[in-house]
Structure formats: C-alpha cells, structure tokens
C-alpha cells in the first residue's frame, strides 16, 4: 500500500519554488503597501504557514491577526456557510487589510469572510492566496496576489492537510484522497525527504 501511494503522490510545488514565490509576493506587497501599515489576516489553520513565511519576507511595518472558522459541511469541501469561532483581536476599521489564504477553492469561504470584514469598513481589503484552484470557483473573488494557479487535484503540505496530517510537509504534494483514506499514514516517508 505504501509503495502504491508513494507512486500515486507527486510533488506539485517544491520547497524552493514555494519559498521563491513567497519572496516575490512579499516584495510586491512591500512595494504596494509601503507607508500604509497593513494588517495581514490569516485564516486558521492552513493559512498560518504561508503567513509566517510571507511576513518574514516583507520589509514594511505591518501587523498580523488570525481568525478561526468552521465550515458547515463536509470535511474536505466547504459549503460556504461559515461560523466564526475566533474573531480578530484588532479593529480593522480604517486600516488596510490583506487576507492571506493558503488556498482558494470554490471561493465560498473567502467570499463570506470578505463580506464580513468589509462591513467593518477597512480602508482597503485585498487577498493574497498561495494557491488558486480557479477551475473550481463558484463564488467570484478577486485575488490580487496569487502564488500559483493550482490544478484541480487534492493537495497536501505547507499548511494543507489531510485529516489534520501533513501540514508540516515543506513541499506541496498532489495525491489521491481515496488512497490516503485507505492508508492515512502513506505519506509519512515524504516528511523527512528533501523537498
Ligand atoms: C481551506 C482554506 C480555505 C478554504 C477554501 O481551509 O484555508 O479557508 O479551505 O475553500 P473554499 O474556497 O472552497 O471555500 P480548510 O477548510 O481546509 O481548513 P484548514 O485551513 O483548517 O485546513
């Protein structure tokens, strides 16, 4: 089974490709937001990995905050009905805000969150997403800073999970979820491989 899964998994984005793209996005954000003291907002849990690397690569004065949400729906597919479990600490009214997401799939989660945050009257509200699975989009959302246009495959690593595992992979793997469902530990050998 392990062998079959390893053959069924493919490195979609290597660690160096991710880090290079993150630095490019951080440079763009640093240019665009110089002197504007933005608040970068991450949605737990998956967005935290990307946000952490992104802010380390920015060169501007900025603040970070987190939201925790729960989607009513299946474990692997959001239905766009979102409950806020932990709200922002900061008052974003009158401030420039960048939502930082690991992946935008249907866009339903982000669309809901954008409308919630818009109602707090930030000075501006933009989106930075590492992966844009644009082919799956249901709710249109404008992604100002996009890392990669992601194919319509199940992906894990760099914050993205399967049943809470594999967020600590340094690369992003494309996998068959059915095979992982049968053997949830099948990708463990990837955790200590060069990424
Ligand atoms: C992912 C991602 C987005 C959402 C996108 O979170 O971080 O919040 O799915 O999906 P959508 O565009 O179809 O709405 P997930 O629900 O996997 O939770 P996690 O970050 O805790 O892993």
Give a summary of the structure in a few sentences.
By secondary structure, the chain is α/β, with parallel strands linked by helices.
Describe this structure in words.
Helix 3 (47-57) links the parallel strand 2 (39-44) and strand 3. The protein has five helices and nine strands; from the N terminus they run αβαβαβββαββββα. Helix 2 (15-32) crosses helix 3 (47-57). The strands form two sheets. It has a six-stranded mixed sheet with strand order 4-3-2-5-6-7, sandwiched between helices. It has a three-stranded antiparallel sheet with strand order 1-9-8. The longest helix has 18 residues, at 15-32. It has 195 residues and is of the alpha/beta class. The two termini are 22 Å apart. The protein has helices spanning 2-8, 15-32, 47-57, 108-118, 177-182, and strands at residues 10-13, 39-44, 63-71, 82-86, 96-104, 124-132, 145-149, 154-156, 172-175. Bound molecules: 1-O-pyrophosphono-5-O-phosphono-alpha-D-ribofuranose.
**Radius of gyration from the alpha-carbon trace, in angstroms:** 17 Å
**Alpha-carbon distance between the termini?**
22 Å
Please count the helical segments: 5
Order of adjacent strands in the largest pleated sheet: 4-3-2-5-6-7
Structural class: alpha/beta
Q: Indicate the low-confidence ranges by residue numbers.
A: none
pLDDT averaged residue by residue: 92
The fraction of residues in strands falls at 25-35%
Largest sheet: 6 strands, mixed
Summarize the helix and strand pattern as letters. HEHEHEEEHEEEEH
List ligands, each type once.
1-O-pyrophosphono-5-O-phosphono-alpha-D-ribofuranose
Number of strands: 9
Percent range of helical residues: 25-40%
Overall 3D geometry? globular
């Amino acid at each position: 089974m392990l062998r079959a899964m390893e053959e069924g998994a493919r490195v979609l984005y290597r660690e160096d490709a991710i880090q290079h793209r993150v630095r490019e996005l951080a440079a763009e954000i640093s240019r665009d937001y110089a002197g504007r003291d933005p608040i970068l907002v991450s949605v737990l849990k998956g967005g935290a990995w990307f946000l952490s690397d992104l802010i380390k690569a920015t060169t501007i004065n900025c603040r970070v905050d987190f939201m925790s949400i729960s989607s009513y729906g299946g474990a692997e597919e959001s239905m766009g009905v979102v409950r806020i479990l932990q709200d922002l600490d900061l008052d974003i009214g009158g401030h420039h805000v960048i939502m930082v997401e690991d992946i935008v799939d249907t866009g339903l989660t982000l669309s809901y969150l954008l409308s919630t945050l818009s109602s707090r009257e930030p000075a501006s509200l933009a989106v930075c997403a590492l992966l844009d699975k644009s082919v799956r989009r249901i709710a249109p959302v404008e992604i100002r800073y996009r890392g990669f246009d992601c194919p319509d495959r199940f992906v894990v690593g760099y914050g993205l999970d399967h049943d809470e595992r594999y967020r600590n992979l340094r690369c992003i793997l494309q996998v068959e979820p059915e095979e992982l469902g049968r053997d949830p530990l099948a990708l463990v050998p990837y955790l200590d491989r060069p990424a």
